[in-house]
Write a structure and sequence with these properties.
- The complex is a heterodimer of chains A (226) and B (236).
- With 226 residues, chain A is mainly α.
- Chain A has one domain.
- Chain A contains nine helices and no strands.
- Chain A is globular and about 60 Å long.
- Chain B has 236 residues and is mainly α.
- Chain B has one domain.
- Chain B is built from six helices and no strands.
- The chains are: A mainly alpha (226), B mainly alpha (236).
Chain lengths: 226, 236
């Protein structure tokens, strides 16, 4: 167990280091997220729809699409020079490999979310400050679930033609339960409702995370093993 | 393996032909249900004639859900037993399920507009079945984007199993969102509240849809087996 955890952290560390050295993907994802927020700001009629009304959906669609770009490259980098084969030849459990990729993807997506959030506050004049803790909990709970499914799927879609299109088609249905929950919670928190009022949603998000991470761990070996 | 390849292909072709005959019988049955529903079943008091679509819509919805469950179970069995026939069966079932969910998704709005006053509502059942449709499409799209049969079988099984996991979550989260769909009147804990004559028509409609579904499945599975056999000949 400890062995597997160490292997997972080593794999995640490798991905994070590789990302920090080039930074191309991270910077592109950040710019992409900022541009979606800008597009959202202009995609409403200011006379009829207030920024506050659109804010929770804008935030979560931005997070979801930015995550998609991150997930698309998760296994693309492993494909070059047969890196994935090397990784799979290492004497570690498949679950550890998956967990490592998942942790690296989460690090990437959380970074994008953390940088996008201040931009969101500026563009949408959203009162995030007082409920920052609640928003952070919601973001973590909502993100873990779809990034887990996305990590698993990207290991498959990287083997297809049109990988960049195939991943969203497969993954978006799995993003819907977390997105519904996250938008509901964010909207309530931003309008000053207490965290206790949204506890049912938070529980649903947490259960989703536990279930999909478990299934993704179990199914990963079916994806990578002949 | 005692069966030779030509005999496998021959059996598959026979299955496909038999499936075609069963499908035609099913289609005739569906036509008969139209007559039965319009001529020999009472008109519902509040909804009037639009309610007739119920006899097409509800069986199609049940068939779509049934097919989806079968795809998931066949996929679990495939990952366990690794028998390529289970994979072909799952694929054939997914295609048939896609047909029935398309019927359900087109008849639903046709009924919704006169009765609800709106084509579409983000109700749990509607959303759920829309997602079944998207999952079927994604499943089949993924299959068509992969060349290696072994890889295709494993990957699509993974998607089908996760799809089965997703369904209760979509239902629950949209349920928390809101609902206006008519509540179940047949499959519910207490006795069905549907009048006897309407229930009879519905059950007949369900039966002919089952025949149609089975026929389409036999046809599609037979074709898949024949294609696989040809692939082995070509590959050899």
């Amino acid at each position: 167990m400890r062995e597997a955890m160490r292997a997972a952290l080593a794999i995640a560390g490798k991905d994070v280091r590789a990302e920090l050295r080039s930074r191309t993907a991270l910077v592109s994802a950040l710019v992409f997220a900022a541009l979606i927020l800008v597009a959202f700001s202009f995609s409403r009629d200011p006379a009829r729809l207030s920024a506050a009304a659109l804010a929770p959906s804008a935030l979560w669609i931005t997070f979801a699409f930015a995550a998609m770009t991150a997930l698309n490259r998760a296994f693309a980098v492993e494909r070059e020079h047969g890196a994935l084969d090397g990784l799979l030849l290492a004497p570690v459990a498949r679950e550890a490999v998956f967990l490592g990729k998942l942790l690296a993807n989460l690090a990437f997506v959380f970074t994008v979310e953390a940088v996008t959030l201040p931009l969101f506050v500026v563009f949408f004049n959203a009162p995030v400050g007082p409920v920052l803790g609640g928003i952070a909990i919601t973001s973590v709970l909502a993100t873990v679930g779809f990034v887990a499914v996305g990590t698993l799927f990207s290991a498959m879609t990287v083997r297809t033609r049109f990988a960049e299109l195939m991943l969203p088609v497969l993954l978006l249905p799995f993003m819907i339960p977390p997105l519904i929950g996250a938008v509901q919670v964010t909207a309530r928190l931003l309008s000053g409702r207490p965290l206790s009022e949204v506890s049912a949603w938070l529980r649903l998000l947490a259960v989703y995370d536990v279930v999909v991470v478990t299934f993704a761990l179990l199914l990963f070996s079916a994806v990578v093993d002949e | 393996m005692t069966a030779t390849l030509p005999s496998v292909a021959g059996a598959a072709a026979r299955l496909a032909r038999r499936g075609r005959a069963v499908s035609i019988a099913g289609l005739i049955g569906v036509a008969a249900v139209f007559v039965l529903a319009l001529r020999f079943t009472p008109v519902e008091a509040r909804q009037g004639l639009p309610q007739k679509i119920f006899y097409l819509h509800v069986p199609a919805a049940w068939m779509a859900l049934l097919a989806f469950t079968v795809v998931g179970i066949a996929s679990i069995m495939f990952l366990w037993l690794r028998d390529s026939r289970l994979d072909l069966f799952a694929e054939a079932t997914a295609e048939v399920g896609l047909v029935f969910s398309a019927v359900m998704l087109t008849t639903g709005p046709l009924w919704g507009k006169p009765v609800w006053g709106t084509w579409w509502q983000w109700d749990p059942r509607l959303t759920l079945t829309l997602f079944l449709f998207f999952l079927y499409v994604g499943y089949l799209a993924l299959r068509s984007a992969l060349h290696d049969p072994a890889e295709r079988a494993r990957f699509s099984a993974v998607v089908a199993i996760l799809g089965l996991v997703l369904v209760p979550f979509v239902h629950l989260s949209v349920y928390l969102f809101r609902t206006i769909h008519p509540l179940p009147i047949v499959l519910k804990p207490s006795a069905p509240s549907l009048p006897g004559s309407m229930l009879r028509t519905l059950l007949i409609a369900l039966a002919v849809n089952m025949v149609l579904g089975a026929g389409l499945l036999m046809m599609r599975y037979g074709v898949a087996r024949a294609e696989a056999a040809r692939g082995e000949v070509d590959g050899a």
